[in-house]
Amino acid sequence: MTIEFATRYRQRSHIPPEPGKPYFIEKGMGDRAHLFTDMFTIYAGGEQTENTFNFFTCEGPKGDIIPAHSHPDTYEVFYITDGAVRLFVEDTEGEQYEKLLTVGDFGFVPKNCPHAYRIERHHSRIVGVAAGPGGTFERFFENLGTPTDELSPPQRPFVPDPRKFGTVPQRYDVTFLPDHQWRTGN
Question: Above 60 in pLDDT, residue 26?
Fold first, then answer.
C-alpha cells in the first residue's frame, strides 16, 4: 500500500508536500511528466529537502540533443543506470567537453555552465540530482512539459507551446541558450 498526497502541483502524488516526513516510493511511481521524447520522474524535491536538492530520473529513446541551457544557481549530476547518454558541457572559460556516458558513469555540471545531453540508446535512464543556493528546479519538467500518470516515455513527442519557453524557465533556475553552438564534433 502506498499513501497518496495532494500537493500544490498535483491532485495525487506519492511525495509528501512538507519536509521532515520519511517516505518511500516504488520504482516509477514518483511525480511524472512528459517533455519532448522523455519521461521525467521526480522522487524528491525542494519541498521535501528544504530547497537543498532534488532527485529525479529521465528515461527516453534514442533521439536528438535537448536544447542547450544552464542553471545560474544549481549544480547538476548525471548518473547513467541504463543505456547510454552523451553529455555536452561548456565551462565558464568557454572550453567544451563531450563524453559518452554508459551504465555506471557519472557526469557533473557546475552552476552557470551551458550543457545539453542526447540519449544514444533506446531505453536509457539518467538519475539526476540537482542542488544549489537558488533552490531546486524539479517542477520545471511538469510546468514546461505535461504531467502524466503513464509509466513510460510519450508515444509522440510532447513539444511545449513556444510561449512557455519565455516564462516557465525563469521560475526554475533554467536559462535556455537557443543560439549556443557545440564545437565538440558530435
Answer: yes
